[in-house]
Amino acid sequence: MAFLKLYRKKLIENYTFLDTIFSERKIQWGVVTKLLCGNTIYLKEVIDLGVMEMHDSRISNLKKIKKLNPNIQTVYIKPPSRLNIEKIVKYADVSFNTEIYTIKLLSEEAKKQNKVHKIIIMIEMGDLREGVLGEELMSFYEQVFSLPNIEIRGIGTNLNCLSGVMPTQDKLIQLSLYKQLIEAKFNVKIPWVSGGTSVAVPLMLKNARPMAVNHFRVGEALFFGKDLFTGETMEGMHNDVFKLYAEIIEITEKPNNPTGELGENVAGHTYEVNDDVDLSETSLRAILDFGLLDMQPQYLAPTDESITIIDSSSDMTVIDISNSKNKYKVGDLVSFDLQYMGALYLLNSDYIEKRVE
């Protein structure tokens, strides 16, 4: 059975690195746990780091976090839907919001539950996902800041998630100016300017972050140590907190090209035979015990760089081991490094065992 392994020591070192640089700059931050898909084993590992603020886009995951540690501040990181208002107030201490209609529902429900629900007003800054338009922000704030049982915890923005717009210094300065305008007009204090995600960590390290941006929400940088500007691993961090291990269930020398009448495979692709290729050529192929139900192969990289991934069906993946110096045999494990989306697929699969080392 294929399994995903989390390396605890590397996770601790990545967390310590981030917590140190945030603390030095007096920045509050929370861990985005949506990658973990509510896996209790891995949520416990994050909680054991000493994290006291966790962000997720699934209410069921926030419910699990509250069950593991009721004292952790939970943040729901997308605009709430009407049908989930009761659960959001119950399991999320804070939520991201962009609609007056929804905030009024949160206010009514928070009053029923005898709670004060905190909100972050998300502002559209060019990535064209969620967010109030800048020219409408003052009117929006005026309509919600006095609602009962609602506390406006801050303003924020999301960049790089849909259209790939990067969080430049100018973008974050603009976000900071919105804070100043609100505070000046309404004589209030905005505690959080939540402009930081994993993609903004490199800006902070270069001291290009406006001082008003005082709250970060970080997932990918914690689990993969990735500089999303360069694509490289940040110095002092690990990119292999997670690894996939899959068992070889067959090894056979087979032709490089299929034979027979060709149609679409299970994924809807049709194999094209190259007429210039010698149809008698063969390769040593191994079959692994995971497939498209668990994973998309483009997000995997064999740690044995001589291995080539050929393709996957629903439950099996075929690799070419012809050039490997390792003498693989049936029952051996093949390991893979993962991109973020690769880990997300695996963590969402009930068929992949989750382990910790």
Automatic annotation (TrEMBL):
Pfam family for this entry, one: Ala_racemase_N
Keywords: Isomerase, Pyridoxal phosphate
Cofactor(s) recorded in Swiss-Prot or TrEMBL: pyridoxal 5'-phosphate
InterPro entries documented for this protein: Ala_racemase (IPR000821), Ala_racemase_N (IPR001608), PLP-binding_barrel (IPR029066)
Coiled-coil ranges per UniProt: none
Segments forming domain Alanine racemase N-terminal: 64-225
Name the record gives this protein: Alanine/ornithine racemase family PLP-dependent enzyme
